[in-house]
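Morning. Coffee machine broken again, so started the prediction first thing and wrote up yesterday's gels while waiting. Chain of 252 residues, entered below exactly as on the submission form.
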Amino acid sequence: MQTVAIKPKNGIKISAEAENISPDKFAGKSEKDIQSLEAWMGNQKTTLGELFTIKAEGTGAVADVKVVMEGDFSRVKRIGEGMTAGLVMIKGNVDMHLGAKMSGGKISVSGNVDSWAGREMKGGELIIEGNAGYYLGAGYRGETCGMRGGKITVLGSALDFLGEHMCGGEIIVKGNAGILAGLSNNGGKIVIEGSTSRPGSEMAKGTIIVGKVDEMMPVFKLEGTEAVDGVSYRKYTGDVIVNGKGVLYVKE
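Came back before lunch.
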């Protein structure tokens, strides 16, 4: 087992990019090696050791690496990008692109996360105890597929465009979501236990389950009612404008 503890040295006010904070990049490396890994603050190249206090113990394969981050990371982007295994535990808030393109492993956050968390995620698990920003589990600009696999759970709420262009995987939001959840979906499953507005526009495939819809898009066909996990929902199919085969369940 290899454990790496990370804390910000000072308040980071300029946006930093730290995609090298990942079990894949830390596995088998010494504390000094980890500290020397590249990072960026604004347009200036720096190292992880310049930005963070880093303590490392033990060694192991990627699956045996545990990264514990404590403090304010709300200006630190791309943590866990592309990770394939291992565990990242973050006790604080995090900036954009957390867990982008990850294919395995687990990231847990005790605070809030900014936009594009789980962007184009292929596998693994992302747990957010606070709130999520815009484009959770979506694709970045120009991508035809957002989340492809894995699971994202948000215990709080999420902002607009949740799961945009989603092609697979599962997103669960315990609170509310902003407008246009599941926009242009082509697969996967979204569960919003609270409310949202205009979900499923232009969806071709996939399933969306919602507690309350504040405003429905007039592009769905009501198919009747159906029970999901013992709860009765109105079942809609669409988006009929694009000949979509998606399913939208809205609690009665």
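The chain has a mean pLDDT of 97. Going to sketch it on the whiteboard this afternoon.
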